[in-house]
Design brief:
By secondary structure, the protein is of the alpha/beta class. The protein folds into two domains: 156 residues, NAD(P)-binding Rossmann-like Domain (Rossmann fold); 277 residues, Dihydrodipicolinate Reductase, domain 2. The protein has 14 helices and 17 strands. The chain is globular. The two termini are 44 Å apart.
């Protein structure tokens, strides 16, 4: 592992010298009580134990990211036995564009049973399924994952873990209670460079941390609109009622599904929800205490932006305040987020974002010190220097204020994922080769809570929201409770956590 730095007299170039199977039926049981409490539908007891050579998997959401999730799970060692999607491409008149990938998944796994409702899949497949991938729009993450865990299934869920804060807390609790193996889909969490940088920050390579900055060019889909699009006829082969699921009802439009749902508060969480679980991951993980409560902010503020009642802003800047971490300066640290193209505008006629320039929100030059913001995604600032990082690159950069002589490179303390593959790490946890994958719900849940608190700040820009993590309350704005835990439609209401 090498660190790289520009040729400046104040920089120091450093060389880092670090370079019994679980039964697949362990969680078999009757789950009618757990699922009934969650959703109020009938669930039959699991089938009798029957050992198979491979753990079996159902893919919930089989287009878009679902293609990679199902394929990655298969390569890790799963047998794909069921597919779930609200789009039945064999009934659609056309499966052009993004829908084509759903059809390709069905062809690739033609022996797998197909369902358009994951509740029905769990009911009918019972003990024939050991694990699920959840690759749906954000508003289905909680219900699909909770139902699966309550039925004893291991869960790999895409990011953000949930659509709302209460949902993230609940999934973490269900995972702990059921003992299933979990993983959030922030794939770079399994990469060696990220784990090494976490170790270095905790070892004090840049001293105690004062600030963290993270940025992205997203959104690349429409956001910032104030009125919904014109209603369209629901195409044959789409179960629109099931697509809406637990979320508030709206009439069908192709400008909502299958792609642009991220730009709707009711179904997505905007650029922040889409990318922060990737880009904020290394900094947030590095600041976690080794024991005790997980890291939680005390306050968050978003600058004025173009958010509307329906849609997230075209761009935003957010700051979280953290009172303490063993790796931070005594006064705590701040985490800053930047997203969106600076001069972009929403074109209603074509229903798209129009970029007027290629620059997107990012830290200023004082923070970047000549480093290209397009080559990195985050920078951690400590008392003695800065660490620049991008989850997609093997190279990270240290810019230090002092000579590095005498710094003791720490031994690796975080287990490395097999082949740096998050699907294989999750598989190995299920097989009992490791205890848990590193991005399991006990870490992914609190990080998602933090990010989704930022989403609430986007909806109330210019106001500092003071957060009580233990009680899940915004202390100075209790009227925002509905954004922490929202009501679900009939048939999807949750009676217990």
């Amino acid at each position: 592992m090498k660190s790289q730095t520009p040729k400046q007299s104040s920089d120091e170039s450093l060389q880092d010298p670090a370079k019994s199977s679980l039964s697949r039926r362990q969680f078999t049981r009757s789950v009618s009580g757990g699922l009934g409490a969650l959703a109020g539908f009938n669930f039959f007891p699991a089938l009798a134990d029957k050992k198979l050579e491979k753990p079996t998997l159902a893919g919930i959401g089989i287009g878009g990211k679902g293609v990679a999730d199902i394929s990655g799970a298969e390569k890790a060692g799963f047998e794909i036995v069921a597919l779930v999607d609200v789009f039945d491409t064999r009934r659609l008149k056309s499966d052009e564009g993004r829908l084509r990938r759903i059809g390709q998944s069905r062809e690739a796994y033609s022996d797998a049973r197909f369902f358009n409702d994951y509740r029905v899949m769990l009911e009918e497949m019972g003990d024939k399924v050991d694990a699920v991938t959840v690759s749906t729009p954000d508003h289905h993450h909680y219900h699909a994952s909770a139902f699966a865990m309550e039925s004893g299934k291991h869960v790999y869920c895409q990011k953000p873990l949930t659509h709302g804060i209460w949902e993230a807390r609940s999934l973490n609790q269900i995972a702990a209670r059921t003992g299933v193996k979990t993983q959030m889909g922030n794939q770079a969490h399994a990469n060696d460079p990220m784990r090494r940088c976490v170790e270095l920050i905790r070892a004090g390579v840049i001293g105690k941390v004062k600030e963290i900055h993270a940025w992205t060019n997203r959104p690349i889909w429409p956001q910032g609109f104030s009125k919904p699009p014109i209603t369209e006829d629901i195409p044959d082969g789409l179960d629109w009622d099931q697509w809406i699921g637990p979320a508030p009802w709206t009439e069908y439009s192709s400008r909502i599904a299958p792609f642009a749902w991220r730009g709707w508060w009711n179904y997505g969480t905007g650029a922040l929800g889409d990318m922060a679980c990737h880009i904020m991951d290394m900094g947030y993980w590095a600041m976690q205490p080794k024991s005790g409560p997980m890291l939680a902010p005390s306050a968050v503020t978003a600058k004025e932006n173009g958010a509307t009642e329906l849609s997230p802003p075209i761009n935003s800047i957010i700051t979280w305040e953290f009172d303490g971490s063993p790796y931070a300066v005594p006064d705590g640290f701040k985490f800053h987020w930047y997203d969106g193209y600076i001069d972009a505008a929403f074109d209603r006629e074509n229903w798209q974002l129009v970029k007027k320039a290629e620059d997107y929100n990012h830290p200023n030059e004082e923070i970047l010190e000549g480093m290209s913001f397009k080559k990195f995604g985050s920078v951690i600032i400590g008392e003695h220097g800065k660490l620049f990082f991008h989850r997609g690159n093997n190279n990270w950069v240290l810019k230090l204020k002092h000579q590095a002589d005498g710094f003791e490179w720490p031994e690796p303390t975080i287990a490395r994922a097999r082949d740096q593959d998050n699907y294989k790490e999750w598989f190995d946890a299920i097989e009992g080769r490791i205890e848990q994958s590193e991005s399991n719900f006990s870490l992914a849940g609190p990080m998602t809570e933090t990010i989704l608190l930022g989403v609430i700040a986007q909806r109330s820009p210019g106001i500092k929201l003071r957060w009580n993590s233990e009680k899940m309350q915004i202390k100075n704005h209790p009227e925002m409770e509905a954004w922490i835990r929202r009501e679900y439609r009939d048939g999807w209401r949750v009676n217990s956590a």
